[in-house]
Amino acid sequence: MIATAQPTPVSALADLVGLLPEVAESALREHFTGRRQPAYRVGQVLRWLYERGAAGFAEMSDLPQAERAALAEAFSFTAPEPAKISRSVDGTAKHLWRLADGELIESVLIPTPTRLTLCISSQAGCAMACTFCATGWAGYRRQLSAGEIVAQFRGARRWAQENGYDDITNIVFMGMGEPLMNPKAVFPTLAILNRGYKFGARRITISTVGVVPGIQRLAEMPEQYRLAVSLHAPNHELRQKLIPLEKKYDIDELLDALRRFDAAGGKRITFEYVMIDGVTDLPELADELARVVREFNAFVNLIPFNPIPGTEWKPSRRARLDLFVERLGRQGISAAVRESRGSDIAAACGQLRAEVTQGRAPVQMGSI
């Protein structure tokens, strides 16, 4: 059963970081007009917000001190505190952010020779309760605000610039939480990143376990945001044992929504598939998976299971991973094994938080 969403703490002041760009501009114009300040003050603040990465009004050094103080009285400015920063030998960097109410969320920077991908969270914890996911085991706390989601990008971008990384090239909503279960914050965040920070829609990917109304909404949008579907099983019987949401939106309904998304054109779908030894990696499941995804001409990411303390599950052996890829390939499906990154710093989603958070009772192999 999905937990009832708790409200995000609301400040009495509008959070400038979480406002749509046109709303932020309008609010700033009204603010400075009321203070009889020149119109160019609006542009100064927006540059600090979107381009120069100020962590707060105090850093906006080309504004008079009195105007910085007045902004702090008129608006809030979300900038979570880094509770822990871990950097892997492979360059992967994980931030554990502490929010204003003490909640902890994660973001991860993943460098490759050609890109720097940022993985961000959309909820504190997750209510989806997927049996193989560390975040799900840690439980659900609350929704994040748009400002708290955008602030992860702003904080990670600033840290990357200060620590010798290239510019962030891609953003994926694959951190803690189910993005499409937080539409009031996630959809404005997409617009803020796209229109405010000039981040191309094709460089932003939303990952979902199959929230059908959210997929349908994405299909109707003109922007070509990418979609990653956490399928993890090719049939209803197995999928409902791994993903409780399958009981609400079954695989047939999910596939219908994906057809609608695909028909919109130019919106790439990737399928995510967790590889658990003896559970999801059977050869016949590869054949069934091929039949399910073939119509979408999509790519399949095979994700070795990240062990969670208290479970008996193990990641698939390399030979089984290679066989799965080969078997999909023989049926015309492009697939690859997503190599683990940052394993020495618990960089998989939810793992860092799970180290200090008690999870649910372990699932026994026999139940699957």
Automatic annotation (TrEMBL):
Q: Could you name the domain of life of the organism this protein comes from? A: Bacteria
Q: Where in the cell is it found?
A: Cytoplasm
Q: Which residues bind [4Fe-4S] cluster?
A: 126, 130, 133
Taken from the record, one Pfam family name reads: Radical_SAM
InterPro entries in UniProt: Aldolase_TIM, Elp3/MiaA/NifB-like_rSAM, Methyltransferase_A, RlmN_N, RNA_MTrfase_RlmN, rRNA_lsu_MTrfase_RlmN/Cfr, rSAM, rSAM_sf
Q: Which E.C. number(s) belong to this protein? A: 2.1.1.192
The UniProt annotation places S-adenosyl-L-methionine binding at 177-178, 207, 230-232, 306
Name one cellular component (GO) term.
Answer: cytoplasm
Cited PANTHER family: 23S RRNA METHYLTRANSFERASE (PTHR30544), RADICAL SAM CORE DOMAIN-CONTAINING PROTEIN (PTHR30544:SF5)
The miscellaneous comment for this protein is: Reaction proceeds by a ping-pong mechanism involving intermediate methylation of a conserved cysteine residue.
Q: Which family does it belong to?
A: Belongs to the radical SAM superfamily. RlmN family.
Protein name as annotated: Probable dual-specificity RNA methyltransferase RlmN
Whose protein is this, by species? Longimicrobium terrae
Taxonomic lineage: Bacteria, Pseudomonadati, Gemmatimonadota, Longimicrobiia, Longimicrobiales
